[in-house]
Amino acid sequence: MSRHQSSSTDKTMSTWQLASLITSTLIGVGVLTLPRTSTELLAERGWMATLLGGSIALAATLLIAWLSRRYPGLTFIQYSEVIWGTRKSRWLGKLISLPWVLLYLGHLYVGTAITSRLFGEVVVTSVLRETPIEAIIITMFCLALFLCLHDVEVVSRVNELLFLLILFPVLIIGLLSFQKADWDLILPLFSSSPLDVFKGSMETAFSYQGYEVMLIFYAFAQPIAQKSKAGFIGIVLAIGVYTLITVSGIAVFGSDEMQKLTWPTLEIVKTTQMPGLVLERLESAFLGVWVAAVFTTISNTYYAFNLGLRQLFGRGMVFQRIMSLLLMIPLFYLALIPHNIVQIFRVSHVSGYIGMAAGLGLPLLYLTVSLIRRQGNRTKEKGKVAR
To answer: Is residue 315 part of a domain?
Structure first.
């Protein structure tokens, strides 16, 4: 086995690291927009959309874990040619799977651009109003590039380190916002039609996207790591955070007022006070935590893209480092294409459907083909197919 092949399949991630990576990837820009998105169709019952939308993400993550267990030690890029090819014609499998691989990698690349642009818009409109948005985006890209220069073990440890820094402050702020809650604003509880609940859940499911990076990262799980358990913990934690924020937003502002706010979660934080006025402007601390959350989202997505591209061409770590730097230039211009916030949300909405196809449709398709062809569970942990 070549040096770059062995390094691409090192088993470094524990169950906890996998769970923290999932949660850190999911909690990002969507935190600021979810209360408005979830209440757009379901009004005061928007919290139902966060629960059901999270259930879709949970189902997709468990499917990805199941698929990864059938091909241990292989990423989506690597077992694509196994699923679609034969032992004698691996090149045929690589050719047939190429459209699906390109769809997946394209989604990761565009998703990174959209997330970075939304991040820049929030920072420029809320904190650094005199700073060019280009400078904000470039700064975040440089941080993501630094992570792409290292092995997967560094990614897992960074996510594990930032996980608690992201989770606990967001939970505390969400609970503190209940000080000014009017619980009558969330009533009635059950009066929406099943069709509206389904539509609202699909819209909210877009905010949970990011779990599709596990098509890459599950391959680096330790042999004793429980992938399904990690996926369950990671998604449930994200569901808890998103539901808490949505309920607090509805209880504080009401669903009608929520539709008038571009970044409703940020407005919730502005109305929240720490006991004893320990922090007079809580939004400053929140934005600091939120920057760390967006960093993990952008970095994990961009790393998964470059690692997938590296494996598609069968190259090593040097190739990944060079391409992560070169591809950052078109990524920067891609992030600047939308002219205003309305166009950004429109592009993000379309990207959500593509992400649903990549994160839920592809694992379902691959599992179906794998079961029909009776493949899986015969793949060695070192990244080679048993002969």
So the answer is: yes
